[in-house]
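Quick one, T. Sequence first:
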Amino acid sequence: MKNIYTFVFALFAVTAFSQVKIGTNPQTINANAMLEIEGAKGLLLPRLALEKTTLAAPLTAHVAGMTVYNTATVEDVKPGFYYNDGVKWSKMVTTDDKAVKFFYMPSITFDTSQDRLAQTKDLFTEYKNQFALATPGHHVISAGAPTAGIPYFATATELYYYITEYDTAVFSNISINANGVMTYDVKAATTDCSLINIVFVVK
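Structure tokens:
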């Protein structure tokens, strides 16, 4: 009978104050907190594998305010904390994310020696090969730098692809698909030099 009274009293206390504290001193709780956790251990949020930012799965519906730790690398999601705004999942941006939010495409060559229609250039593969130092003898590494290559994004769908400027006298009908493959036409070389400015943006 004593246990029943204790349970009822605890339930009444939680209902009356609408506040809960877990920790070493449960008698004190921040006046602005509904839940306060105090102690020498962390808070472990649900860990699950999201399928895509626009899909609620593995949950049954999008719920604004839902926060999880995603363990999957698939489509446009990668491991990290995500919150839901009621329509989609968004990754919580960390300092590391901000540091590599965008960067320029490494130097690549385009053959503009003659008219060419429906040409393709795999921008992601070109970038990956250069950052991975995949071409022997064509790079220089500073003393003490890792020889395994520069860290790079593993899948094409982790990036957005932009062309911010190009020579309209040389290039036309440019498009880029979601995997970073660029399609373009080349008009005969009408200038001694040309330019095309390609930027990668981290999703």
